[in-house]
Amino acid sequence: MKTISLFVTILLFAVVADGQPKRSPRSTAVQIADRILSATTYRFINKESGETFSSTKGIAAATPLRVENQYNDWHYTNGVLALAMLELADKTGDKRYEEFVLKNMNFVFNEGNLDFFREQFERAKQAGGWRAVTPLSWHMIFRGKRLDDNGPMGASLIELQLRHPNDRFLEYIRTTALHIERAEPRLEDGTIARIWPHEQTIWADDAFMAISFLCRFGKLTGEERYFTEAAHQILNYNRYLWSSEKQLYHHCYHTDTGERGVAHWSRANGWVFMATADLLKEMPLAHPLRSAVLRTFREQASGIARYQGARGLWHQLLDKVDSYEEITGTAMFVFGIARGVKNGWLHPDFIYVAEQGLKGMMTKISDAGDVTAICVGTGIMPSLLYYYTRPQQSNTPMGEGPVIRALVEMMDAPAYREIKADEQYDKIRVQ
Questions:
Q1: Which residues contact 285 (CB under 8 A, 6 or more apart)?
Q2: Residue 154 and residue 208: Cα distance in Å, rounded?
Q3: Are 279 and 230 in contact (CB under 8 A)?
Q4: Does the N-terminal or the C-terminal CB of the chain have fewer CB atoms within 10 Å?
Q5: How far apart are alpha carbons 248 and 160 in whole angstroms?
Q6: How many CB atoms lie within 10 A of CB 49?
């Protein structure tokens, strides 16, 4: 009996560490994804009466209808989630996750549904201007004025188009490409910028909002100029936002004052890192700018590693250990480092950083697959207190997309292996 009791104790110790069950990246990703699948309703709800509908057919445009479920909305965070679901489908061979993305897009591009919300959008805009359209479902698909409206969602549509060709998808993809190429605000040197909160402000977030699309559009079309454009954006963002002292990115740069933002915000750094990893994956090996892009990726990986917290997580403000531990930035760093090691872009030792990041992520993911410690959407403010006090939320695409992407990359990541000193002694020759 003592032998059995000892065995059970050892087994329990192996299964549970720091109060957390030993879960694999695969099982955790599947658990999160399956929860999302079961939560997605594909319905519309009348905001006033609470009545739900499966179609907009026969409903007057004046009806205060919204999509019932967050996963059916048109938002850049759902673009990241869609990319993650497609990567999960490819890695596991489970087509349910690919079918989820396809069903979502077909739900949007259904001519009746799209026409209903287009009419709602036009009525609201005519009556109250741009502010009036913001509360409406799918307003971003019609607004098309910023990368948040179309970049990551367009990127996920490209991946879907490569699997399930659809003229409606392709039309939207081409419209997005034209917007980025001709309409998106830029500096004189071509760097993508926003015209708020100051005129021509560079946001680190836009590295992903633009490059997630550009590198995939290059893959779709086979045209090198899109990889070149994406590379120029990364290199320019590095020039404007990189702190050589901290080895981190600032959240923003204001061209009117010549000042960089006060915060080394975790997710801002994550957006750049994830964008660069996506670009390196799609960029031709012989592209003339590849080596420069790779250099910035390695510099950022080295910088990020220096700020990892004691529990494997990175903090909301990377250089402020009194800020809270946050999962989206952590997931983006784990994703990029794991992909970098597997592709030979980073030294194999970096996988240790990703492994510790994965352990930290697991402390923020419940046994039921609930993702916590997700910083809400965050703009730019000249105050560290603003970043310190940003609310946290659970189970939103803002966090679930990056987390699933990280888990997928860690599924087949090599384990860290330390080279022991005695393995190297034979290389030292006695003279």
A1: none
A2: 12
A3: yes
A4: C
A5: 34
A6: 9
List the chain residues with pLDDT less than 70: 1-21
Decide if 216 contacts 281 (C-beta within 8 A): no
Q: 3-state DSSP call for residue 294?
A: helix
Q: Which CATH architecture has domain 23-184?
A: Alpha/alpha barrel (1.50)
Domain boundaries, the chain: 23-184, 188-415
d(CA 332, CA 245): 22
Peptide bond into 152 cis (omega under 30): no
Cβ contact 334:266 at 8 Å: no
What pLDDT, in 10s, does the model give residues 105-136?
Answer: 999 999 999 999 999 999 999 999 999 999 99
pTM above threshold 0.85: yes
Domain 23-184 identical in fold to domain 188-415: yes
Question: What's the pLDDT at 430?
Answer: 83
- What's residue 431's pLDDT? 74
188-415 belongs to CATH 3.90.79.10: no
CA distance 330 to 357: 7
Edge-to-edge, what's the strand order for the sheet holding 52-53? 52-53, 44-46, 65-67
| DSSP characters over 305-350 | HTT--TTSPEESBTT-TTSPEEHHHHHHHHHHHHHHHHTTSS-GGG
